[in-house]
Design a protein that fits this description.
By secondary structure, this protein is of the alpha/beta class. It is 40% helix and 22% strand. Pfam families: ABC_tran, BCA_ABC_TP_C.
Length: 258
């Protein structure tokens, strides 16, 4: 679905991404791992249109999307979440979801004056969909809670819920497990697996929790110094001497499976 070809992103003399080439297959949950400073988030930002590449090419289902802005990619079904959740804290959880779909009739003054029935029907449809999403994510009991009052893990679930309010084709998750307790992390993992298997979502995720990556991801891609170092199953990555010794630590090799 996504093909990244020889992508570079330079900040002055610093090469944050230095010739990265990789593919994200449709229907996969692809893990992207590596040490801090490896270029993972910068590559995410280039793919998602937050940053233009210095050079290189990104395609989605054969279409060149290099340098397209995030709103254009949003309409093509490419979405991303962030390491730090970006909720609207003064709005309820349900309201956070309802405002996601674009081109709502109530956004124009003309419709607000002359097409109130249409607006009411759209709002009823959005309300129903938001409640279905919250039930899917098992946080429907929080629908009327202010989003700013949620825990870190609940905010990550809310961000995942936003992707369900539109027709997402591929979702880039940036450290969805950061700062999340193990119980909620399992809930997030269950939701990702269900979205992948039941609704055909494609995911690519940056994550440092190798147990979480191992549960969800195949393949796993390792980046280091702006380049792709290795790719394979989690077991292949864990047994790759270069990856273990240089980037993941020798302790990982000898860690007993849970």
């Amino acid at each position: 679905m996504i093909v990244v070809e020889d992508v570079h992103k330079h900040f002055g003399g610093f090469h944050a991404v230095d010739g990265a080439t990789l593919e994200i297959a449709e229907g996969s949950i692809t893990g992207l791992v590596g040490p801090n400073g490896a270029g993972k988030t910068t590559l995410f930002n280039v793919i998602a249109g937050v940053l233009p590449p210095t050079s290189g090419r990104v395609t989605m289902a054969g279409e060149d999307i290099t340098g397209l802005p995030p709103h254009a990619l949003f309409h093509k079904g490419l979405l991303r979440t962030f390491q730090i959740a970006h909720e609207f804290s003064s709005m309820t959880v349900r309201e956070n979801l309802m405002m996601v779909p674009p081109r709502q009739s109530g956004e124009t003054l003309w419709n607000a004056w002359f097409h109130r029935a249409r607006i009411r029907q759209e709002e009823a449809d959005l309300l129903k969909k938001a409640d279905e999403v919250l039930e899917f994510l098992t946080i429907d009991h929080l629908k009327d809670e202010k989003a700013g009052n949620l825990s870190g893990g609940q905010k990550k679930l809310l961000e995942l819920g936003r992707t369900m309010m539109v027709d997402a084709r591929i979702v880039f998750l940036d450290e969805v497990g950061a700062g999340v307790n193990r119980t909620l992390l399992n809930t997030i993992g269950d939701a990702i697996l269900r979205l992948n298997k039941e609704r055909g979502y494609t995911f690519c995720m940056i994550e440092h929790d190798m147990d979480f990556i191992g549960r969800l991801c195949d393949p796993v891609i390792v980046m280091a110094e702006g380049k792709v170092l290795a790719e394979g199953t989690i077991d292949e990555i864990k047994s790759n001497e270069e990856v273990i010794e240089a980037y993941l630590g020798t302790g990982l090799k000898n860690k007993e499976p849970a």
